[in-house]
Structures are given as structure tokens and as C-alpha cells.
Amino acid sequence: MGSRNTTSLLEDLINKARGCAVIDGGFATQLESHGASINDPLWSALCLIKDPELIKQVHLEYLEAGADILVTSSYQATIPGFLSRGLSLEEGESLLEKSVRLAVEARDKFWEAVRSVPGNSYNQALVAASIGSYGAYLADGSEYSGCYGPEVNLDKLKDFHRRRLQVLVEAGADLLAFETIPNKLEAQACVELLEEENVQIPSWICFSSVDGENAPSGESFKECFDILNRSEKVNAVGINCAPPHYIESIVRKFKELTSKAIVVYPNSGEIWDGRAKKWLPSKCFDDDKFEFFATRWRDLGAKLIGGCCRTTPATIRAISKALKDRSY
Known about the structure:
- It is a single chain.
- This protein is an alpha/beta fold.
- The chain has helices at 8-16, 27-33, 46-50, 52-65, 79-84, 89-114, 134-138, 154-170, 184-196, 221-229, 247-257, 287-300, 313-323; strands at residues 21-22, 69-71, 126-132, 175-181, 203-207, 236-240, 261-265, 271-273, 278-280, 302-305.
- The chain is globular, with a radius of gyration of 18 Å.
- The model has no long low-confidence stretch (mean pLDDT 93).
């Protein structure tokens, strides 16, 4: 599925970015800054229905800020989620396709505008199709606990993800981004799906973490990585939506556990209450800290760096500035 080389596309971008490419930042955060109301089980995917042009605008804002990779608005866009809203299967699949199309259109429009500008520091961005965890679909915070219950097994998770993966690949995404995976079981489901569907575009699998030491389920990252390291379909592994003050130690740990490219895109450090569905006050990183620490994470071995919830284009601009500093 898909027809491109599974390694060269992502590796080429990392090389063009001088060893470390920039991922975009918080998508829902930026939608809300423009007035979007997305307190909904579909979360940012709600705008695929209500305001697709705003999605494209946010993609353009991240490109202008220096993002080398756009992550699509499909994190919480699932076939079961759309069906529960009364949409047909065909309508749900069309919205998944739209999430890729909007990102591709934004990427192409931006690149056409800047590619011939003398001295520009931009790279032609890749589009990563977001595949959120099963817990993201449940919208109960379980992507941060890994507790799916005894009735959720490997086959159930593969069945849940399969059609979405197929649609996103067929829609023309450059790579797949499995995000906030909270346990070894779901990581295994993602790997087996990539193999079973013979996916030919690059992919990364990112875990979440609440303690900086283990997956949210309590399983060690070593247990989880043993599965990922055996698959040639997984090109990069890492962490997303974890507090940024954990990232330095996580990169060090991951360098010992894998030879694959390491991807990190933490949140701002604020804490999400999955049941109350609100952000709790906490110590967080400002953009200056992201600028400072991005170079540390790169120097420790991270190859892809960006932001997740509560980060903004200003955050990505700071990261891009640090990583693309010509004095490096």
C-alpha cells in the first residue's frame, strides 16, 4: 500500500534539514486561538466538518513558522467516531481523505510561494497522516493511562485502526504518524497492521508518558521497543504530548534502546484532565525554553522535533530558528 520507498523520503528530509527536521505544533490549540469551538469527542477533527478552510490556514501558519512536517487533523478522526455522529461510512472516509488533502494543498501552496525566494530557509514539507490511539477515540483520557480494559485485544485494535490507515495512505499522505500510543499491545497492533497492509510509506510510532520513565500503562519502553525494533516498516520512534522536562532523559533512554530515528514533540508542560476535559495550571515551557532545549534534544540524538498540545506557531518558529541556525 503506497508506492514510495519506505526510508528515503523521511531520511532525505532529515538530511535536507541538516540532521534534524521540524514538526509542526499544537493543532487544536491553534484552531481554538482562531475561535473554533472543539470541545467535542471529535476534537480538532470537528473542523473537517465545520470549517475546513481554517484547518488549511493553521497548516499554512505552521509552514510559515518553519515546520518541515505537517501533521494532519485526523488524530481523533475515526470511522466509528464519524458513524456515531450520524455520518455514513462513505462520508467518514471522505473526511479522512480531506484531512490529507487540506494539508497537501497547504504544503503545495506554500512551497510554490517560497521555493524561488532567494535565501529562504524552508524545506518542501512532508505530510504526516495522524493516527491517534484507541484511547483518543474513547476521549476519556485513556491514551494517558493505557487502561483499555480486558475486552480490548490485539485483533480489536487492529480492526479499529485498519480502515483509517488504508484511507489515509490511499489519500496520498507522505508518511504515517501513530500518536500517543499508551501501551505495548497497541504498539504491536500498529506494527502488525503496517506489515499486513504492506505499507510502503514511512511511519513513526510515538508513545505518551506520564512519568518520563515508562509507557502510561506502566510497561517499560524496552518492552515496547523490542516490538518496534523488529519491524522495517517503522522508521522512527519517539514520544509526543509528554511534558517537555522529561524529553532530555527520554531521548537518552531511547538512544540506548533503538537505532531508529528518534522523534519528540512534547506539549507545553500543562496537564490535561481527560475526565474534566480541561487544562490544569502547571509549570510549563515558554517558547524561549523550547528554543534552548531543542538544540539539546538534537545534540542528544533526536532527528525530528516539534510541539504538541498548547504549543503554537511561535513555539515552532523558536524551535526552527534554533535548529536551522547556520552557525551550527
